[in-house]
Amino acid sequence: MISTMNSIRNTRLILPLVMACLPLQACNSTSGRVKDSSTIASTLATSDARTRAYNDHVVVLSSEWMEGRVPGSRGISLAEEYIAWNYQSNDLEPAFDSGSSYRQQFKLRNRSTFSGQGDSKVIDAFNTGAMIPGSGALAGQWIVVGAHHDHLGTGTFGSRGTEGKIHPGADDNASGTAAILLLGEHLGSRLAELGDVPRRSILLMTFSGEESGLNGSAHYVQHPIAPIEDHVLMINFDMIGRIEDGRVSVTGSSTGQGLDEILATASGDTVLEIATDGGLSSRSDHASFHDRGVPVLFVMASSLNEDYHTEQDQGWKLNRVDAARTSRFIEDVILLAAVRPDRFEFSRSQMDRSGSSGPGLSEIKVRFGIKPGNYADPVDGILVGGVSAGTSAEEAGLQAGDRMILWNEQPIVDIGQWMTLLAACEPGDIVDVTVLRDGGEVVIPVKLKAKN
Length: 452
Description:
Blueprint: H1 5-13, H2 15-20, E1 25-27, E2 34-39, H3 40-45, H4 49-61, H5 74-89, E3 93-94, E4 103-109, H6 111-114, E5 122-132, E6 142-148, H7 170-192, E7 201-207, H8 215-222, E8 231-237, E9 247-251, H9 259-267, E10 273-277, H10 286-290, E11 296-301, H11 320-339, E12 366-367, E13 370-372, E14 382-387, H12 392-396, E15 403-407, E16 410-411, H13 415-423, E17 430-437, E18 440-447, E19 449-450
Parallel strand pairs: 6-7, 6-8, 8-11, 9-10
Antiparallel strand pairs: 1-2, 3-5, 4-5, 5-7, 9-11, 12-19, 13-14, 14-15, 15-16, 15-17, 17-18
Helix pairs in contact: 4-7, 4-11, 7-11, 9-11
């Protein structure tokens, strides 16, 4: 097993060779959609340094060397070494063990337990963290910016794809981890430019064990580096790699008084369309902080994609340009939040808990083919954010903008409840889906195809 920082440094140095060997496509920097006529190399040739650095990170983190980054594996250890090496290279202070380590160890049941095979072996898992100390009267208050770095390995649990194949987890969540590493490169110097003013301390973190139940973030809030009451804001990146039409979802602003104003100010300096929503999903690591009374913001692409939790979640499909822009946008949010004189008064959100109920994705035998528009949608039903080609939904005539409200006359409440309905179906079944479209209800018969 490779176990030194030098091994990761060597990995980073051979990235030009890796890129030269990839006959891959890239995302158009305007629309964010994959363009057959464009290569990653040609896109990067006209991109800024942030986008190129972001590319370096996602290529490494989603490579086969990382083996899908499941906790307890050789691959996730390499990923954690790579993250720690980047912290160190940017002169960030270690966050744990009294400032001597970039890692926070915790115990986690291994992946065969997650797959239901009954093995109760406990393994060591690791969060990573680096800090940028604040100054003056606000230095004792903390802003945490995080993303989970773990994924599904070879799909032994939680997979919608083929068990035994490496699940690269490029969007989920090499994309968010790369954003943290970009912040580590740029945030310190931008904070220093603020001068001798009171500002909050910043903790950059990546979490392990998210895919198996938010385990890493749950451990951190029980064992924080400062009292949890001194954590004034948590910002979470998860799946920012597949941004379409420049639209980014930022939810949770209702959890802290003043967050809407900061988002509005920062939005004026980006070409991205920032879609804000006071609602909040419980499906990622910000939920652990929210449950302890910390205001949170959840940052992700505004629509989901069909490669989620499959071996098709690959690096070449990412919109590097807009993901790097998203990291820069959140950097601006952090700068504003760091110097705000008042704390963000916490207000508890009614979180959508659909991610913790219903069947596992691996239990569903059919593929419907929609991209839900928003995890944190407060309205009953499911907004269709997009429809994938060649799927049951497309062939039946569902459209982006439809809101699915009934499934065989049974109300659709949220994504988790709908997944339970979907899990009861077999390939070849025909279901009547009622949607809201143009102010009226339309009933659409859908013949369900088998999941590939």
